[in-house]
Each structure stands twice: as structure tokens, then as C-alpha cells.
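HUMAN:
Just now I want nothing more than another pair of eyes on a protein record. I would be glad if you read both lines and explained how they fit together. I have put the entry right below:
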Amino acid sequence: MAFLRSTNFSSESWTVSELNQYIRELFEIDYRLQDLEVSGEISNFSRARSGHLYFTLKDDKAQLKCVMWRSAAERLRFRPQDGDAVVVNGRISVYEASGVYQLYAEQMSPIGQGDLAAAFEALKAKLADEGLFDAESKQPIPQFPRKIGIVTSADAAALRDIINVLRRRYPLVSVLIAPTLVQGADAPPQIVRALRWLDGRHDIDTIIVARGGGSMEDLWAFNDEEVARAIFAAQHPVISGVGHEVDFTIADFVADLRAPTPSAAAELAVPDVSELQPYFISVQQQMQDTVLERIGHYRWQVQMLKRSLNHLSPQVGIAGNRQRLDGWQDRLERAMQRRLNQSNHRLNLLQTRLTAVSPTATLERGYAIVRDENGRIVRTPAAVKSGDPLTVQVSDGQFGVTVDEKDLSTD
């Protein structure tokens, strides 16, 4: 620390820079101003490109300029904005270039969130002890999801951001939205129901739980114990995209993957199709090379099998057997013809014999056959009586007669 100048203020002229430096040194030797707590309302808040924060703390009577360097701002657990009531820890010093004294903030927390912060830490410690944050429990995120479920407010800007990112990066994926409140006392049970409904489906690959940024009270639904347990119990992998980069919720710790923003959650959920094109081209070329290599291998195998088949082919034996079969067929036909001729000869002899004893032959010699009305052959006159109708068959037909008694004779 610089030592104060020992100077008679009335006998020497000071430059502005010397005076501002002297005043800065006065501030810095006062230990009460090097570690103090100041409460007030934020106004004129701005974030520089460098990440430093510039704002004013005010109450109803006065105001105090403040600055928070990026290294301290990155540790904040909320996103400050105009109108927030906060408590700032830091030191007072003078910015010599403008001659303005200001508070150099090291820490900042919203007023009235002390109980919430304590509840947050208590639940965080409880669930950590139960193993809900363990890396071994995290599920891998599918590389190429077909359908993504989203748990968020239906009219939230976060939902539009997620859908825009998904369409731009991976238009092949479809989206199923489970709308729910994301703020207020009624939000936690709705978030749980939406999450369980999506998790109960078999066509979901990944679930995103998301909402935009806000104060700790705004995000408190995602610090609910039931919400945390529902995320942990989900069978599908869950990505948490709640708030902004500086916001952390219990849901972030339980989820399989934490994204700093809803848009980042969408980016982590799907690949970038433009980046996949070289990969697909490479895979296509590999598949083509593999197919051509296998075709060549199988063609060679077919040729070798064809040669083996020609060597072992039964065609030669079949040709010889076909010739022998023709000879056997000729012999069989000749044998069958001889047998048929012999059978025809025997048939003719039998026919001649049969004709000789046939009733027809007898009839042709002038004899007749007499039958009664029942068709029985009449062999004796005793078999008929006078008046019986008879049928007489001769060689070329038949005719009817009636028995005349006077014609009956036993001669």
C-alpha cells in the first residue's frame, strides 16, 4: 500500500492526479472501507463485452457507483438486472481517471433469498448423499435420436429457441411437447406429470427439461425435490437446460446432462447434420469398398466351386446311363411285343373254342332257345302249361308264342 504524502496542503499546489491519488490512498488505509457490505437497489446496470459489470446502488436518498470484474461476475449464481435489491460485498476506492469513488464488488446476492439459498444447499446436500448426482447414474445421450420430448411452457421463448436449433442442426428429429408451468407453486407437480408422461412412452429417445433465465424465485420449481427425483427415476436420458450460464438448479445436478441454456440443450441433444456429411460420405465409401471386396471374393468362390462341380459332374455317367437306358428300353419293347403276340395267339385259340361251344353257334345250326315269361330256359314240356306265353330265341332274333295243349307231346 502506498504511503500518504507528508505535504503542507496550504503551501503547495497539487495536480488533479496527485489529489485523486491522495484521496484513493486515504480510502485504502481505512480498513472499514476495504471489506464492507452495502445493500441497495441496482440501477443503470450494464455488462461490458469484457464481461465486467457496471451498475449503481441506490436507496431513497443516495447512490453509489459500483464495478464487478469479470472474474467475480462469473461466480454469480443469479443474473442481476435493474430493480434488483441486493447485498454487495467489496471495497471502496477511487477511480483516479474520473475522480469518482466507487465500490469494487467481489460478491453479490439478492436480498430476501437467504432462506432460498439455505434450502437449496440443504436439498443439494441431501440428494448428493443419496447418490442422485453420481456420475455412475448418468445415462448416455443418444447420438442420433428419432424423437425428443420437451418439458417446458408452451408459450415460452425457450421452446421456440429449442425448436429452431433442432430444425437447423438435425431436421430428421421429431419433437413431442409436454406443456407445463415452469414457475410458481403449481409448477413442480405439473413438471413431474409432464416428465413421467414422456418417460412412459416407447417412442422417445431423449427428454429436455427447460426454461429461460430468471431470478432464484423464478427458477425455484426446478429446485423442487419431487422434480429432482422424477428426473433421476426417468428411464430415458434427461438434459436440463434451465436459465442462463450463471444459473444452477437441483435439476441440473440430477439430470444426465446439464446445458447452460435451453438452446445449448438442443445443441447437445442432436448432432449437426452439416458436420455429419463428411462422416456419411466416408461411411458410404467404406460400405461400397466392403461390398465390392465381398462381391469379388464370392465371385472367386463361385468360379472355384464351378470348376470343382465340372470335375465331379455326373454328366458323363448320365450320358452313358442314358445310352444303356435306350438299349434296355428297346429290349423291353421287343419283349413286350413278343409277349403281346403270344397272348393274342392264345386269345384267338380260346375264342375259337368258345365259339364252338357257344349257344349262338348252336342257334345258327337251326336250334332255338325257349324261355318262359320269367326268362328261364324251358328244358321240358312239363315246365309249361297250356296258355303260357313263351319267348323263342333263334340265331337272328326272337319271337313270342303261346303254349297249345294239343301240341304237348312227350315223343
Notes: The radius of gyration is 58 Å. The chain has eleven helices and 13 strands.
